[in-house]
Specification:
single chain, about 240 residues, alpha/beta, 4-stranded antiparallel sheet, disordered N terminus
């Protein structure tokens, strides 16, 4: 997938059972130059995702039949493991936010939202997919710490020779840690690393992403060897 930082070549799949919301999002994203497909429910979304291979999925948590969390889980379990997923959630519904991140969503937008915010979120997740390393950063393209290998340009991770599939956000977080093993990052710093300074987000989202990364790279997630908690501060990647 050759994207240029979320520019108009990207394909967006929007899933919502409200026809007015679908129409609005098609108009907003189409105005920005994206190619937009829409689906009113989870079943049709799965079919469209399989045939159209979207570059990002924007989906409402509250869907008839297959709800948004289950749809997110199925997209991650099937062949679309790395497609960025943004959830649309109700204001104040913390369980949906944490639940969505727990099943592999990259980000969320709380309703009601401004068109500007949604477009910014779409651009941000596409930027992570198009280029895992920050703009202007140097350094090696392949990072190796112990038996963890992070290929920055190809967005590939191997642990002990085993390939590991990460979402774009998970990969960006792991790459941030791997570039500076031993450094302690606060949750706020990690939010800035994956979203960009100025985004309002939820620091517990970092905890959810870290939990997902540990589940994928650690032999015993509850006793991590690589991605360590620094109590009262944040996280660091083991430097040996």
């Amino acid at each position: 997938m050759q994207l240029q930082f979320g520019m108009p070549s990207a394909r967006v799949l929007v899933v919502d059972d409200d026809p007015n919301m679908l129409s609005m999002l098609r108009r907003i994203l189409g105005f920005e130059g994206y190619t937009v497909s829409t689906a009113p429910d989870g079943e049709s979304a799965l079919r469209l995702a399989a045939t159209e291979r979207p570059d990002v999925v924007v989906l409402d948590v509250m869907l008839p039949g297959i709800d948004g969390l289950e749809l997110c889980r199925r997209l991650r379990a099937e062949q679309h493991q790395t497609v960025p997923i943004i959830l649309l959630t109700a204001r104040g519904d913390e369980a949906d936010r944490i639940g969505g991140l727990g099943v592999g969503a990259d980000d969320y937008v709380v309703k009601p939202f401004s068109p500007k915010e949604l477009v910014a979120r779409v651009r941000a997740v596409l930027r992570r997919t198009a280029l895992a390393s920050p703009l202007g950063s140097g350094g090696p393209e392949v990072l190796r710490i112990a038996d963890v290998e992070v290929d920055i340009r190809r967005m590939r991770v191997r642990v002990g020779g085993r390939a590991v599939d990460l979402t774009p956000t998970e990969f960006q977080l792991l790459a941030t840690f791997a570039r500076e093993p031993g450094r302690v990052f606060t949750r706020g710093q990690l939010l800035d690393a994956v979203h960009g300074v100025g985004f309002e987000s939820y620091e517990r989202a970092i905890d959810a992403h870290v939990k997902n990364i540990r589940r994928k790279i650690e032999r015993v997630p509850g006793r991590p060897r690589y991605l360590l908690t620094v109590h009262g501060v944040g996280y660091r990647f083991a430097d040996a």
